[in-house]
Amino acid sequence: MLKNKIEELIELLKKNNLKIAFAESCTGGMLASSFCSVPGVSKVFEFSAVTYSNHFKEKLLGVTSEILKQSGAVSLECVREMALGIISYCDCDMSISVSGIAGPDGGTEDKPVGTVWIACAKKDEEYSVNKFVFQGSRDEIRQQAVLEAINSGIRFLKPKPAFLTDKL
Question: Is the pTM for the entire model greater than 0.85?
Answer without folding.
Answer: yes
